[in-house]
Hints:
By secondary structure, the chain is α+β, with helices and mostly antiparallel strands. It is about 40% helix and about 25% strand.
Amino acid sequence: MIELYESQRAMRNMRKAAMQRGVVAILDVGSSKIACLVLRFDGTDPSEEGIGSLAGQSGFRVIGAATTRSRGVRFGEIHSMSETERAIRTAVQAAQKMAGIRVDHVIACFSGAGPRSYGLAGNVEVQGVTVDEQDVARVLSACDVPDYGHGREVLHAQPVNFALDHRSGLIDPRGQIGNELSCDMHMLTVDAQSIQNLAHCVKRCDLELAGLASSAYASGIAALVEDEQELGAACIDMGGGATGVSIFIKKHMIFADSVRMGGDHVTQDISMGLQVPTATAERIKTFYGGVHATGMDDREMIETGGETGDWEHDRRTVSRAELIGIMRPRVEEILEEVKARLDAAGFEHLPSQKIVLTGAASQIPGLDGLASKMLGQQVRLGRPLRVHGLPQAATGPGFASAVGLCLFAAHPQDEWWDFEVPVDRYPARSLKRAVQWFRENW
Length: 442
């Protein structure tokens, strides 16, 4: 716990240093593409301004952008270090070339690594008359952290609600008068190996890692409008190899999970069903894909060219209805898995139950209608917020996590490691646990 706490603190300090220098790169490591954006900061300290989805509109500008086909990444996790390293280098060099500046620090996000959410609570007596930074640090460290298992790391640990005596729903209790301070914290843990692989890969590219985020969280920041973040909404980020699910309320993420299926699986089904190469299947999916068949689709024929060079042999046609018959079951399977995750999180108990679909795979025609039928809520397709300097090509749903990461870089929400946790909290806790173990086992 302490090593992670310190490494996250070190990353936060590195991010501050990078922002003082004026440039930082954003790296979205996905299963189908790797996107890199270079941000220039104009010297205003974002920590002095409020936190919010629109706060990122000031303070930075995108001066370089590049994408490359992802290699060596499956289900949002790195499978081949050398191939991923090559792809990251390609994207970063192209973005640097466009920006005309060298970048040393990157903030990365990824979608896999089996995220798990925990809700923690803690309370302490306020030492002085008013709540100060030290009291907030004490209440955060008083949250009883569960045993989340060996080989997992904490990626996010954000206070989502403070209560002072009988008043709940405080965003920032500092400077207020009271006696007892309580806090609810959302903690997200991920598989440690996946994080270490990504950190190692970034290091091999001669870059410094200045921050890590879950792409489900980043997509939610970019695709949900302020009211949705406030009243409660779910963001479903449908990528190539994984589909991220995140739930927001009161502008804080309270749940995140991921489904190990995405748009690439639909492409593979088409490739196997129609006996065509993957590249052809991707083209057919993009141009003719859909999930609702009509009477017209039986008559609309699609040419499936092959790559053997024998034109007569390759010239086959399939109806669009057949194509939809292959795509729809897989899309339904992904949505069923998403529904299971939302039900497990208790999404139906939120005051507002909006669902926003984003990510490149959300562009399949008719997906929003199918999603609202299966998930039973108001569903809309989300595009990321517009940020200064973003090229037109990078404004689609597939760039939601990259744009969200820009906002996260410029206006990070308070995390547990932003506060100087009293050193005496750690030994006391471990000693208490040791004593308890001793009592139970002897």
